[in-house]
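User: Here's a protein and a ligand (adenosine monophosphate). What would the complex look like?
Assistant: Let me lay out the input and then the predicted complex.
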Amino acid sequence: MNILVINCGSSSLKYQLINSETEDVLAKGLCERIGIDGMLTYQPAGGEKEKSEKAMPTHTEAIKFVIEALTNEKTGVIKSLDEVGAVGHRIVHGGEKFTASTVLTAETIQAIEECSDLAPLHNPANLIGVRACQELMPNVPMVAVFDTAFHQTMPKTAYLYGLPYEYYENYKVRRYGFHGTSHSFVSKRTAEIIGKPYEDCKIIVCHLGNGASLSAVMNGKSVDTSMGLTPLEGLVMGTRSGDIDPAIIEFVAKKEGKTLDEMMNILNKKSGLLGISCVSSDGRDLEDAASKGDEKAQAALDIFAYRVVKYIGAYAAAMNGVDAIVFTAGIGENDISCRSKVCKNLTYLGAQIDEELNKCRGEERIISTPESKVKLLVVPTNEELAIARETLALVK
Ligand code: AMP
């Protein structure tokens, strides 16, 4: 069966068509500037990437162009929509309602809408994609795969904040965690690689991308994760601050005469690697700048790695041990010096990095020495494939 995987944002939409038997990507691409003007990128497997300007006043036109590209006589990969067996949608927030992926029905869509106040920028945009697909493919089954669902196994000790309990009861203020599809995919694969049953493993997943989070996965379940009510908590990220003393918000707001909205915008979009370095949010730019002697860029890279080290320590403690620590996503898969810096501070756990094996980018590999008590790995994440697998399991 071919599964169309859709990741829909407010003005963009990423897609992949995946053959679920072979798990090959048949075609992939992106619609950008939806509601502004419109740009379609389309790439069939083994073919050239094509970019074309298309008028996309809404997501419905965007998906129409995606379908046209997929079924195009010359460069398409399927003859008609009949060859799409299901659509898998990435949905950011499932609140406490969704502990697993679910088939999209009128009831489940309404339940996702009810979670929208927890992710006001993301869930409504995700649902626009769902509705546009339903309009154009009314008979194709659709599945929602949530970023939060994998972390719903966290115990109360990990997910409750030290706040008045009524905020949890009245507004569901708690830790949810994100990147769940990636943490689940990568931890399962790690268990396979180290040859231990998933149900018996203690794994720390370091998803280090522009957005970054760690998770502690014990006996096949997420027991803690660094992002919280929103993706702002935890590690220092590309443009997000991660953990800070909450009193800083009031302190700076008073000094600079800023509103709460302005402060949140600074914490989400102008902090992290970008804020510290004053150079860029991108790891590669920072490495370049640091190699030319830029001290703030070097500080940003060091602070990023230090925060990862601290969270690994916390999660090894939370699980009372760790079998494997795995790096994934843009920085985790590609940044050799970041991995090296982090792993140098893990010798107290008995973890020993092999610096030669560590010289790899974007490939699956064990990077610890044979003697290392804790296995260190790089496992590329593949959220689209994980969504396709979940979708297949529900529609089969
Ligand atoms: P993601 O959000 O997973 O796409 O990851 C994006 C981040 O990965 C950006 O900060 C990139 O700078 C970083 N990244 C990608 N390739 C490399 C590389 N070769 N070396 C260092 N960082 C990289």
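Summary: Residues 209-210, 238, 282-284, 329-331, 334-335, 361 surround adenosine monophosphate (CB under 6 Å).
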